[in-house]
Design brief:
Length: about 280
Amino acid sequence: MTDKTIADLIEDRFGLATDDGRDMPAEGELAAILRHRSHRRFKPDPVPDELLRVVLAGAFSAPAKSDLQQCSVIVVKDPEIRAGINALVAGQDWVPGAPSLLVFCGDNRRIRRIAQARGKPYPNGHLDSFLNCAVDAGIVLATFIRSAEAAGLGCCPISVIRDRIEEVSELLGLPDNVFPLAGMGLGWPAREGWVSLRLPPAVTVHTDRYDDTALLEEIDGYDRRREARFSTPADKQRMTNEYGVAEFYGWSEDKARQYATPQRKQLARFLNSKGFGLD
């Protein structure tokens, strides 16, 4: 039993005072979701195969668009394949330290093969097919995180594998109409981690119509709340050669710098080569 309430957890997550959930104890699934934190440092202990299968069973209990179930997961066990992926994402130095590595894939191949086996046409090989399986895989990935945390494990998605999507696909033997959405480092957390401050609901939640009139002032407030909690040291600022060392380096400055250069421009070409129509 805890004296904390859901309101306390919301305040911790957003850095804003609220009475929402003040009468709700900080217990159960909702509290666990609000306490979520990513983990990039793990103990060396392996994740037992049985436990991994249990966590995956939880992940694949996620909702699926039209019951199509268009996600597949590759559990990377082969040391050579693991080493190859580690090398491709060398900028993420925590990945080799994760006892388990998984790759979540959007899988439009199954429904195409089923249609062929049942003697039916598949006239839907356009952009919506890609979106459907990408969203399915994303929901399974998010549910995997919840399942893993419920079992006491820690994890963190690895989107950087899409920087090297061709090589990752080749290493994993992915056929046409299957693509890697994200990797996942999994293991027993070596430390507690911290709650990452999120954008305020005033920015992310709209009623009836989209309205970002107050966006910049809300972002400024968020930047300052976040910087007060976790200040970015000068040596962690991005692209200082181009933009210098900022006296105040908030979340918005970091993200603006992060996306100031082109990223993953090869994705459309790769997806087309894998049989996804993007029209």
